[in-house]
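Please predict the structure of the following assembly.
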Amino acid sequence: MSARAGGEGFPDLLYSDAERSLADALGSLLADRGGWDKLLARTESADTYDTELWRSVAVDVGCAGLLIPEASGGAGASYREAATAAEALGAAVVPVPFLGSAVVSTACLLAALGSSREPVHLLGKLADGGYTMALAVPFETAPGAPFPVSVRVAAAHPGDKGVGWYRLRGSVRGVADALPAGMLLVPADGVPQGLYQIDVASPRVTRTPVASLDMTRQLCDISFDDVPATLMASGAEAAKALEAGLTAGACVIAAEQLGVAQRCLDMTVSYVKERKQFARPVGSFQALKHRLADLWVAVAQARAASRYAAACLASGSGDAPVAVALAKAYCSDVAVHAAQECVQLHGGIGFTWEHPAHLYLKRAKADSLAFGTADAHRSSLARRVNLPAP
Amino acid sequence: MLNEAELRERVRAFLRDSDPTRRQDFLNARFDAGLAWVHYPEGLGGLGLPRSLQAAVDAEFAAAQAPDNEPERIVIGLGMAAPTILVHGNYQQKQRWMRKLWTGQEVWCQLFSEPGAGSDLAALGTRATRDGDDWVVSGQKVWTSSAHQAQWGLLLARTDPDVPKHAGLTYLVCDMTAPGVEVRPLRQFTGEAEFNEVFLSEVRIPDTDRLSAVGDGWSVAMTTLMSERVSIGSARAVPRESGMIGAVVKTWRDHPELRTHGLHDRLLRLWVEAEVARLAAERLRQQLAAGKPGPEGSAAKLVFARLNQEISGLEVELNAADGLRYDDWSMRRTERASFFGRGPGFRYLRARGNSIEGGTSEILRNIIAERVLGLPSEPRADKDVAWKDLPR
């Protein structure tokens, strides 16, 4: 068996006009946000997520409902547009829960609901920004991971009879985008093993903010103390829904990594044109130019990988699992490399708190672990394209 | 203007009326019908149509199993000489050269690099001096593929040593059969000779074979070199695991006994890079087809050079004991470069040339840094100095 793809009907790897408008809309919204000091200050505040900005992104630009069908109140767009949005948001390292809510949870929920239309109000609420949702799994969980067992279905309490819900007990470490969420999707083991929905307003849910490597996407540990939960899908359906969420996450975070890498390159190129040492711009030294040329090449390659993954997921291509693993493996390394080059080529200023280079470095490094490391995705590729380990 | 369906119908009509068994006549007629390269002007083998329509024409001829012009044999003519003549040639020159160039009756080669002028091409020293209606040319050129088969050579020569280096060059077309042209094979460290050295001793070139003005050689040469990069960058979409990576993954799959954990990690990293490079080439192709060529073309050669080198290096190691053997060191001339039909050792050695030929990777990085990223150039010591006064 060898992996075949390409030839006739190659997916479109360019940006559509609609995608360009979306990127422009986000670009101007984010450009109007002023200096870095506000963003930096927020990372040390109690509210690390910018809920006001999230409302603009989610509602005004319409990013919350990109993946939700129009019939359910969404924009009926696809992973191509979601990836484009993530690229723009990643470029600005803004603390909004787009990835966790509008991508991962939405993909998970759409898969869980399948053709059933019952809790359609949930999708509508997600699409109009009424709800923000997170999938309660550790941020580093990769597609293909075994179904989590750290949360279990607990025994019913006296008086639960006939209420139609279950209770969950347990904990999850290091969940992304759960701090600003009003709803959680929780995979839980037990009877039935399934995907549950809970309301974080319940006093039986405790979210503990974590000092995170990336404070522009602060993680939290979550514990569940017999919290009431609604079953959304069970058994194989739940596993499929979880996989859909994780795959969407890996695909779209690759686009975010592309955005991070491109911005790191742009910032660095501007800086080396301005910064003078030895009576000339440091960007005129070949030692630096060659590094930046290599970085530009890597970013151009990453763009092709990311676009292919988004296009495959959007069209439901059979090559999507390979495309997503490829994009996450490649873009992870490129984003980290770009952020590290950004720090190094800025010299001393790049090592300070006041300069934003570190926000990109921390985002890039954290993203490289999120939804599986490059190494994990290469191992997954080894199985999928028949390159077995010794 | 013809649309694709009308164009396809025109090709089918041409095929109905032509006899493909008379190969040269058939190719001549195809050229005269404007179906050689449809984006070229009428009268020069084209119909003045968008370049993107050529694929439909090629598909029709291929489907009819019609004879082609063996494009791989005349790469330099098609990829470099033709675009240069199209832009800089006069009417007579176009009429005289284009048809035999496209049909492959006349092979072209490129006489640019010299032993003393590699990356710094504009410093070249081959001299052309005016004598009546002729130029008299003496000097040495190197890395000339197809020179031993060529009828014509694209020659860059110094006509004025008293001005700065870029300003004193003139672009001539050299008859490779003229007295004073001597072609010698240049043996590479793979054992074979894919290229030649060309020695020019008082070769007479009529002034009518000059392209563009005296002293305008550098800008004409840029047309040639940019065309080379476009033709490298716009290769057709290829299937996954084509090229160098295909050879390694086959060995990996066929020989479980050769697998180690360290090699596995390297193989997976290179598989990812090769596949991403394939997607990037496809994305570039889509950009060109959409009429929006991006600067990504200049990345392609850089990437493929590095990947070919790393992948072939891995392949030699993966072959273990057989990696220590080499298929054939004997000196022979090869018609064109191919990595396949040879062993891993050959691929490894030949790939080292990929980052040197057609612009070194270092020069490509300079080009990307300066033209794409807009970074300032290094201070230049040779800019305002007459060529004859440069240190050498």
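Residues 153 and 191 of chain A are 6 Å apart (CA to CA). Chain A touches chain B through 48 residues (CB under 8 Å).
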